[in-house]
Amino acid sequence: MTRSSGKPDQRLRLLVGLVLLSGALVGGVAGWVVGTEFPASPPPEWPVLASIAGLVAVGGLVNIDVRVRSTLHGVAWTDAAILIGLAIAPSPWTVLAALAGVLSAKIIRRRQPIKSAFGVAKDTITAGVGWAVLTVLGFTGSLDILGVLSLAVAFLAMTLVDELLVIPVIALSSRTRIWERFRADWDIRLLTLLWRFGVAIAAAFLLEIDEQLLYALPLAVILGHLWHERWVRAREERLAWQHLAEATKTFTGVDLDVVLRQAVLKGSRLFAADELEVEVWLGDQQRLVRGADEISYDGPPAAAPAAGSRVYAAPLHGYRGRRDIGVLRLRFRNRVKMSEREEAMVASYAAALDTAVRNAAAYRQLGEATEAHAYAAAHDALTGLANRRELERQLAEALVDQASLDSRIAVLLIDLRHFKEVNDTLGHLAGDRVLAKVAERLTSGAGPNDLVSRFGGDEFAVLLRSAWRPARVSARAQRVLRSLAEPIEVDGLPIMVEANGGLALAIDPQDTEPEADAPAADFRSTAQGWQAELLRRADVAMYQAKRNSRPLVAYTLAQDPADRDRLALAGQLPRAVSQREFILHFQPIAELGSGQVIGAEALARWRHPTRGELSPGAFLDLLERSTQLSAFTAAVLEDALAAAAMWRAAGHDLRVSVNISARSLLDASLPRQVLTVLEAHHTRPDRLCLELTETLAISQLDTVDQVLTQLHDIGVQLALDDFGTGFSSLAVLSRIPVDQLKVDRSFVQALADLGDSGGPAGAAAVVDPVDPGSDAVAISQAKAVVRSTVQLGRTLDLGVVAEGIEATPQRRLLWELGCPAGQGHLFGPPQPADELLGLLTRGEGGRAGAVAAPLAPSPRVVPLRQSRGSGNRSVG
User: The pTM is what?
Assistant: First the structure.
């Protein structure tokens, strides 16, 4: 038997009414049959009828309650008791005895009248179905094979009718689907059905042996019920915790939307709630997600529809003294008493959800911060235009995109004439307004697919796409410059802005136009080299325009004095490599807190026989385009590890860092070459760090991935240089097995004290000569980039090194932001290996290996420990 509770709606009332009417009809038919047959067929002895009624009453009193949302129903033994009665007494009398027994049980349990009436009517119908089946099958009361089969068919029919009557009522009252209720716990319902049938048949056989055992059957039913309930509860307990574990598996993701929605959908089924909602408070953001079988609301709590149902709430607890971040609410339409096990499960579910929400929120904040920093790193704070880094990135991408090459691209570099006079006369604030207006004018004058950027100071650059013909491109460039023809009004004062522009076209290497045969055409062997050359050519043309007082000049090779020198240097590279004209200088890398040197970066110099010592900028791009790159890389690795071995022999075990060209990563033999040099100098692989400066486009090549993976497997450390400039991203970190992040010097320079550089002699404070009003914004952005990079390094167990530290205030501020190490002229300029050894030997303040005094913690600073591993993981 089952019973249900809940406020019925119209369909529920109709169904219950039909059941009551059918039950009354079955009871009336049984009474009529008994009345008409009474003279000819005397009734069973009254103790037998009383025992059947009592057995049915006991079967109705002992049941197992099961909650479906806010509706409670139970599984009882009335069907087994009725089957026993049908086996030992005439069926009409059994129907009436069952009616009396069920009615007695309902009165004793004091159920609501409508529920009691439904239960009495349903069990009366069930008994009537059993009576009808046995009558059709000709059951005579004999318990032979045919008799047992007849009872089995009758019991099956009774069970089906019971399910068909009760399950729709439960589904309607709990607002669930009827088919779901039929499928729910079908296995346990089948087992209990077989158990009750077996008990009923066994009891019938015992009564055939001795009718006096009838009076002991209620006790047997109670004992069977107790065993059955214990088994059901144990199974229910086991499955509940299994379902809890399965539900919380969906919390392992880092998408907050998925976590909250899965928590609602899984939790409503797990706890059989009419509705479940999760409300979270993350900073200033408040969010409520509510639903059951599907999400019914997702938005601000204040705008959520009213829900007047009964609520069981569990807070999403804070930890370490922090406040709660939300609350989990189970909603029920009717009063529900939660068991101890359910309360424990809700608490466990809320704890798991709390952790998942915090993790997802932290991941989202990290992603948002990364996006914000990437945007800030790619855009100018004053004008909102793309900055120089973003221009270089998009230009490099366009140069490796065949579609862009087919449609041709060009670069227009613009310099504002006499802009310093605006700053000197009207002030920097007025100058800022002029720059902002210039940015708007240039954007309106450029095409929809062109990129307008602030190149720096009073210079702007425009990346012109679809540059099919030089004459047409020149006309487009003139249109951009004409956008500045009208005066710009600032505080009621019209200001004329004059500009000079230099135009350089990127010609496909396979083209046969004159520039394709230029001596410098080899610069196209790498995207970065090509991009740098285009910008250089635009700069050359712009200065020609300024010298000649012309608004626009297009680059021509004949007017470029630099190409012959570059060609001469390129021709001397084989001799320079073979005669070891390239030397290495080493810049120390120190712990910011202690000032102790923990590593050194190798920087190449060309000791030219006639031109003197040349910096890397004069020859590295030529090397990358030449056939001498592999030999140069081998020589640098040899000299760097020889220097490290010399320092180690003197008692200074430093990690040496070597910059690796992008083209070197395309050489599959590089890992074997590195391992050979390491073994030759008896150096552990982790004492060598290779610094990568390639873009995402190159890093996605399969060969590069394989080379980097092999280097990492050897044990060589990998560092991502210029991190935060826009070329690096979380996507790169997910592909490359990086061990270290190097904060770009531009962010470190932005941290300089504007009042006092505090750097070495001759150093000047980092101040934008055109836009000083944006210095505070730049410093704030630089701090955010450094702080997020340090936090990212700690989260991913990566070392962090800041480049370009020139002043003590920079060092202290970086240390306070959590950066563990850095390099720059504050700790020492690049110098030969033996001079660095002398510096290490002398030390500082009596400490060998130190290049600066230790920093004393300020009262507001709590130094951060490394997340895992030894402290040297950060850089050294």
Answer: 0.42
